Amino acid sequence: MRQPIIPRKLWLGVGLLLVISFFGAGLAAAQEDESPVVVTTGSPIHPTFPLLDAAGENVLDTGAPVSTMTTCGACHDAEFIAEHSFHADAGLSQFTTVGDVPGGQSWDSSDGPFGRWNPVLYRYLSPEGDARVDLTTAEWVQWFVRHPGGGPAVYSRDGELLTDLAVDAANVETAIVNAGGELESWDWNESGTVAMNCFLCHYPD
Fold first, then answer.
1. Is this structure's pTM higher than 0.85?
2. At residue 11, what are phi and psi to the nearest 5 degrees?
3. Using one digit for the tens of pLDDT, what is the confidence trace for 49-95?
4. How many CA atoms lie within 13 A of 188 on its CB side?
5. Partner of 150 for a Cys bridge, out of 79, 133, 196, 202, CB 3.0 to 4.6 A?
6. d(CA 107, CA 115)
7. Where are the domains of the chain?
8. Using CA atoms, how far apart are residues 187 and 168, in angstroms rounded to an integer?
């Protein structure tokens, strides 16, 4: 008995349907597996953070100056970093009587830039009782380059806050040499002090 002959067009139609079904099922499965693409912003290394003022409030709301110690201190131990960074300390913690710095010169009063002769600026931080005052603390803060703040820009040579010192034109920590070469008083509460500025080194670009 002769087997019925299946027309060639029927074979092609069935094959085409199988191919379409296979690819259609695969496409549907792929679409089900796709999760929504999450677009991230900011650095992959450091999270985005708000800039805070000294009171811990967002500066966009308060309009107050940014406090790096409060902003960075929200996650990092900024006080510890400032206290243990020679770059910020600049020799303040080793400040001593002129000539008593181990391995220093007879005119040095610390082992850091706060207390040593600066040959680039040709200036000298005057110790207490100096007959001729060159740089007072306030002028050192103004003139000295590459100091990130903190240390002598916040604390006195005895470790007190500069803002707690009594204003006295005879004190090299609360005075500045005016244009006439005379000492005049400097009030840290009016000028403000310079906290360690983390952003001088840690910046997005």
1. no
2. -60, -45
3. 899 999 999 999 999 999 999 999 999 999 999 999 999 999 999 99
4. 27
5. 196
6. 9
7. 49-84, 91-199
8. 9
